[in-house]
Amino acid sequence: MLVVEAFRAAFGADPRTVWHAPGRVNLIGEHTDYNDGFVLPFAVPWGVTAAVTPRGDHTIRLLSLQSDGEPITIERHEDARGWTRYVVGVLAVLADRLGEPVPGADIAIDGDVPQGAGLSSSAALEVAVAGALNDLHGLGMTPMELALLSQRAENDFVGMPCGIMDQAASALGQEGHALFLDCRSLGSRTIPLDLASHGLRILIIDTGVHHEHAGGEYAKRRAECESAARKLGVEALRDVTDLAGALERLQGDERKRTMHVVTENHRVEALVGLLRAGAVTEIGALLNASHLSLRDQYEVSSPELDVAVEAAVRGGARGARMTGGGFGGSAIALVAEDRLDSVQESVAAAYAERGWHAPRFLPAVPSPGASRRA
Ligand code: GAF
């Protein structure tokens, strides 16, 4: 393994453990996780591998195979910058959780999640490191506990108020399955996603665009949902049972956000129902409806995502939607194998017509979740 060789070269010995954690795409259930709702992501074949050995002091030395040069040495957690925050954040929240300092570590990281595609490379990094530390310190944490620890690192240390979806998909994903997760109870079920026997594929369309304001807009959406829930007297928008009545009591953006969250939760349940009935060919309409709701009610799409979705459907996709937080990143399309070329040609042509950078196409194969590799 390349990461083991790099670890040995940088730190002079073999790592004590090696963990791998994948990125994710979300099939449906967008911006529902922090509303205590339902999500249906799956792990992708790309991820992050972390080779780790604990140290006798509190120093953290970090080497990334994706950046040139020497390991970065971090003596104090608050000195972490850039990508190192996701790693140091996991050590920091673990210390907080255990109520005692956690030993430092030598860590080498190798990742192949396509950068900027919105496929959760940061969650993969957190979960890989959390899995390794869990092992090394014999903490006996479950995959969901690893996901929660990773989410806390991102919320409290990095400062991104994300929900639990990305980390849960990375920690609990199963090959050939999507993960149905109730983000309130944290109960989950793996749902077989049998695409091949129906001659179907899920195609990732990476727009190559990431809008800078995404972080601020994400926090704003979350605050709008919390405010709407308070006005409706419910704990979270997940609890709205009378949508028409709720909409009468809300105005403007909060009204639109509520409309999206409540209907999106129903779409997740409907899609799970179709999958359980073996009707994967019929899920396209729900994907399309989810996209329209994210575009018009939740307002987190972008011109590049909209054009990708519309052109994919025009080219013969059975359905398509943006996936992840939005404002760029990737869309997914459900495509019959014999339509793959025409869908890709249609999207590529729509981008070329507008003078946009060519999109990238990647096959999304439901893959295993995090595991120890050595
Ligand atoms: C991002 C967040 F990290 C997730 O928690 C989720 O809210 C998603 O956006 C939107 O569904 O990926």
Automatic annotation (TrEMBL):
UniProt keyword list: ATP-binding, Carbohydrate metabolism, Cytoplasm, Galactose metabolism, Kinase, Magnesium, Metal-binding, Nucleotide-binding, Transferase
GO cellular component terms, A-Z: cytosol
List of residues binding ATP: 64, 116-122
Galactokinase N-terminal domain segment(s): 5-54
Site residues, Transition state stabilizer: 24
Domain GHMP kinase C-terminal: 274-352
Signal peptide: none
Catalytic activity: alpha-D-galactose + ATP = alpha-D-galactose 1-phosphate + ADP + H(+)
Binding site for substrate: 30-33, 218
EC code(s) of this entry: 2.7.1.6
GO terms of biological process kind: galactose metabolic process
Official protein name in the record: Galactokinase
Residues annotated as catalytic: 166
Protein purpose: Catalyzes the transfer of the gamma-phosphate of ATP to D-galactose to form alpha-D-galactose-1-phosphate (Gal-1-P).
Keyword Transport: no
Source species: Nonomuraea montanisoli
Location relative to the cell: Cytoplasm
Listed pathway(s): Carbohydrate metabolism; galactose metabolism
